[in-house]
Amino acid sequence: MDASRDSNADDEHDPEGATIAFERSQVDALVRQSEAHLRDIEAAFVRLAAGTYGVCTVCGRPIPAGRLEARPTASTCVSCAQV
Ligand SMILES: [Zn+2]
């Protein structure tokens, strides 16, 4: 973002404009993914503090350790995640 701001690129007329717009949309998507992941991590910490980490938020059964290893922010067991 900083680099493109300094280059005087004009998205309307610069032949690179379409590429810059595309790259910006890619970056936007990455940022949104990261923000969603951060929310998952924060939610996991909240459950950890509440003593409910590792317990499925849907059925209340323990989430298998293997699933938590693969996806530490998982809030549901495998069968509830598939619903
Ligand atoms: Zn469940």
Briefly, what is this?
The protein is built from four helices and no strands.
How would you explain this protein's 3D organization?
With 83 residues, the protein is mainly α. It has four helices and no strands. The protein has helices at 2-6, 17-50, 65-70, 78-81. The relative contact order is 0.10. The mean pLDDT is 88. The site of zinc ion has 8 residues, from α4.
Q: Which percent bin holds the helix content?
A: 55-70%
Element order, helices and strands? HHHH
Are any ligands bound, and if so which? zinc ion
* Poorly predicted sequence stretches spanning 5 or more consecutive residues: none
Largest sheet, if any?
A: none
Derived structural class: mainly alpha
Q: What is the approximate shape?
A: elongated
Individual helix count: 4
* Rounded average pLDDT: 88
The share of residues in extended strands comes to under 5%
Radius of gyration: 20 Å
CA(first)-CA(last) distance? 39 Å
How many individual β-strands?
0
